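Can you give me the bound-state structure? Components:
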Amino acid sequence: MRTPVLSAEGLGRSFGARTALVEVSLAVVPGELLVLIGPNGAGKTTLLEIVAGVASFGSGRLKVSAAIGFCPQGSLHWADLSPREQLIFLGQLYGLSRRAAALRAEELLTALGLLSHGDELAATLSGGMIRRLNLASGLVHRPGLLVLDEPTAGLDPENKRFVHELLRAETKGRGTAVLLSTHDFAEAQLLADRVAIMDQGRIVACDAPAALLGRRSSRAMIELDLGGADAGLRDRARAALSDFAPSARSEGDAIVLEVMDVTSALGRVAAALESVGLSPRAIRSRARSLEDVFVELTGRRLTE
Amino acid sequence: MRALIVFLKCARQQRRDPIGLGLTLGTAPAFVALYGLLFGTAGPGGGALQAFVPGLLVFAVIMVVFSAAMAVAKEVESGALRRLRLTPLRAVDYLGGVSLFQLLLGAGSVTLTLLTAALLGFDTKGVGLSAVGLGVLASAGSVGIGMMVATFSPTTSRAFLVASVAMFLLLLFSGVIFPRPDAQIFDLLPTTQLHLALSTLWSSDTGEDVGRRAAALLGLSLLYFGAGVFAFDLRHGLARRR
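Here's the bound-state model for the whole set.
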């Protein structure tokens, strides 16, 4: 059993009357990537800032036994310096010699696909490149714990790929522990060794994606595409379906429900829809996703 | 060592802003040249120029308030200061590096102003170096005031406005343009002390008087510098992590 580089027990934090974190406990071991997922206001950023040491906590205990690299949201760069100059500057501030800092900058620029833009002023870089530069800045000093607040939000697939590859190299190659937040369930499932689902300042579940998906593993999902049916009709359909699938929920133009057995459920679905005078455009069955687990645990979708 | 790293970064950034550098270093010398051309150097003791130069040296020192405040506010505005807060950089190193660079700009501006004046016929009376030294001392006070301005300025445009308020105070109540008010509180302005010191220097007073003025200027500049660093550190403290 590896010793955690990050260990938090019962962390609590309030901002006036608003409670941001309630009894949050988690641990991250070297080489592990733990993803925090939850809606806006769930407490993810507060937790990350507390772990990174830039915000204080009101109660609980926190132990970090490695150098921290923190990449907050937003752009934290010098527009009038090139990425290479910034990385060398930061490296020197962390105590590297100029030569060592230059080598490290080269390494990071290569890893993040910024080498060909390494000597351009940051003011001329695209948003995606700036995000990658932000990530590189947090990695300059080879931290043992990397804390990232939505590092891929708003990035195109190409930029996301660079970030994902770097994170894999850091965790599996160097043994860096990573704690990151995201809104993207697919990304969480793809990257995470463990996923912590946060809601209203609490961690409501924390486990490997497979284990989270394996909860109630005998269940399956049915997605009913209702086309352009109006909201009132959709609500009536959902109510009718709830009689045998209480978790039925609207997702855009569709209704999603969780059933024990797809084949036997289809007849009841058809009957329920017929009772409200609705015929679906398409019926699909699919495997459970982390988003389904999130809904099951919190009773709502991430975007609600 | 980290202060030196910050100093070099400031120098690199300034190199990328030649217009800003030109305005900081060249405004006072340009006005000296303009005054020289408009009013000439005729008359006893170098004429009008002889009267204007001490005031323009004070103006050169005031330019440092703008330069220092806007350089730091730019880092606040861009989020770069947040990045620095994540490093082991201490406030004293950061402000040390920034201040050293701004002090260099102040020294450059004062020197260029005096050189321009001398080229146009201003009589330095052999104490030009002492005048530059006094200007550098006062620049330290300007850097401190610049830090205080930056403390209350989340953006560079706000820094410019707040620095303008400071400029009015430093210029109007120091006796440079209008007669100095009787209230002794205005003696606490570094520009008042610089103006008095320069006037003493060029009025052939005793070395003892100049030394006394220089000591007052040094004390005041250190006070402002310390207050500026303290205020900035309080607001934007670096390396205060767990």
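A couple of observations. The first helix of chain A runs from residue 44 to 52. DSSP finds ten helices and 13 strands in chain A.
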